[in-house]
Amino acid sequence: MVERYPTDSFVGNTYWADLPFKTRHKWYIESRGNEMKREWKEFNAEIKENPLGPIKHYWNRFVLKGMGLYVGAYVLFSIGTLKILFQESFPDCWKNFNVCNRVLVQSTEYLQIVGIIFGQIVVGIEGDVISKRFGFIQNALVMLLGVLMLTASWGTSLQGWVIMYTIAQLIFGFGVGGEYPLTSGSSMEESSSSNAGPLDRMHRGRSTVLVFTMQGWAQLSQQLVLILLLLMFNKGGNPPYSEVAAQGTFRVGFFIVGVAILWLVYHRAFKMKPTTNVSQSKEKKSASAYNLRSLQLVLKYYWHRLIGTAIVWYCNDFFFYGNKIFQADFIRILSPTSGDNVMTNWLYNLLNIGIAMIGYYAAAFTIDWPIIGRKRMQATGLLANFIISIIIAAAYDPLTTPQGLGILQFLYFFSSFWGQFGSNCTTFLIAAEVYPSAVRGTAHGFSAATGKMGALTASVLYNYIPDRTKFWVVCWMGLLGFLLTVVFVPDATALDLREQERRWNLTVKGRDQDYHGLAVHPRHLSWFERVVLKVDKQYDLELDHQQRLEEKEQARKSNDEEITL
User: Fold this and answer.
1) Residue 479: CA atoms inside 13 Å, Cβ hemisphere, count?
2) What is the C-alpha to C-alpha distance for residues 481 and 386, in angstroms, rounded to an integer?
3) Mean pLDDT confidence for 140-152
4) CA distances (Å), 562 to each of 199, 279, 284, 505, in order?
5) Burial label, 18 (beta-carbon count in 10 A; 0-12, 13-18, 19+)
6) Rounded Cα–Cα distance for residues 459 and 465 (Å)
């Protein structure tokens, strides 16, 4: 029996997105209210059975899945955090460039990003063609090698040390890059399977974003660890900062996360269950041809979605990573009286991270609300940061006076909230949801790699432009991202991702126009798909129901044939 109108998505025979506004709002309040009551009842029952049950659930469901993102972000953001310490402890190399090449020192801010870009593309393809488990284990091993090299990096001169430090980052970055397409893909596996149901449609975004919040926890923990280590090795947080204190702080900081990565290697090699890909169900040659064919079809039927997921991610990472890598420079603007006090700089950064964490969790617990959704959240966050950045750029002189610093600090920290309650969380999710599972890793990897090109652009460009100009440049990234989101990004909020798979099965047969289900409902298509391509004209619930009956009959016959054989 094919369920014609699932009660969690339909009121009678009307899809929730087609309801009049007042009726839709009433339906939304009622359905969400019932779900909140159900979750609260389950939570209380779990607490009574085992007080640590919710913590165990959170660990297994979100922490383990996001551990690769955690260790990667820990090291990546440590690079930006450590920059000011190196400048104060090794000024002849990192600040005045008397004994080290300026370009070489600056390359420490972006070569890891180059490694991430290659990792996102290569491992994204590996995840589709070989298996996600293979890619996960490979990522952990590469990151372990990279962090060991970072911990032990040194040379016969300061410049030699910078060279080894940079090479280690490049290697580590490759492992980090592979985490993006695999983590998002694994988060979506159940959503595209036959086991998906109402709870997936209600909480898919929350589940994925809670995995992604491990990036935020990494920022918080690396900053806390470095603060404690500096207090220990420097016997306080005030200058001067000795070379020995700097060495001890960064090496022990990297060693600590290295232990976590070593555990991750063990967990993935011996505890992670094997995954089954489309490519594993056929002969290797056929599978490769299938994936190549699938990639060609993605470029033909979803090229406009790639513009939305890839270039918007570029705009986001230009803003986000430019901010994080050059955070010491920005915080000097916010607190000019602190000068080069490393501890003051790090405490400001700790506050900034705390505000960002509020944004992460606000996004996680509202991203599945149909009245907000992924697309609106992304567009609103990008527009908010455009407005904030252009205000700072236009009013830079009065804002950097003693009287204006309070307003400047508020605007800077407020932008961190909108970065997380916006495009930094949604780009990761949307790039996984809007593509079929057969090429999800490849499409997500390409989108993420394009995003890191934005981070790379900011990392290089910010070395050569004044502080005020940085705000003039980054504000337009917010506006461009907003416009591209409105035009090219579809909204998969509350969409059953099995509909994406049904559409894809027809697409690979050259019959995309024969699909009539919810994946081509106007609510779940971009403006470009509706207005220019007019894909929504395919939507027809009656034809879709007849088609699903035929699909079920074909599946039954195939099963009977397999049993006979």
Assistant:
1) 10
2) 9
3) 95
4) 32, 19, 21, 20
5) middle
6) 11
Q: Where are the alpha helices (DSSP H) in 130-237?
A: 132-152, 158-188, 198-212, 214-233
Predicted TM-score (pTM) of this structure = 0.87
> Quick one: average pLDDT of 497-518?
89
Please report the pLDDT score of residue 307 as a whole number.
95
Compute CA distances 440 → 182, 286, 443, whole Å.
9, 19, 5
Cβ–Cβ under 8 Å, residues 503 and 519? yes
**In the numeric block, which tokens belong to residue 553?**
């009959």
**Which of 10-24, 176-190, 346-360, 432-446 is predicted most confidently?**
346-360
Task: Determine contact, residues 486/315, Cβ cutoff 8 Å.
Answer: no
d(CA 313, CA 423): 8
Q: Which H or E element spans position 30?
A: helix 21-49
Per-residue pLDDT band at 472 (split at 50, 70, 90): very high
CA–CA separation, 425 and 419 (whole Å): 8
Collect all residues with Cβ–Cβ distance below 8 Å to 123 and sequence separation of at least 6: 135, 138, 139, 177, 178, 181, 182, 441, 445
CA gap 306, 349 in Å, rounded: 34
Judge contact between 163 and 100, C-beta under 8 A: no
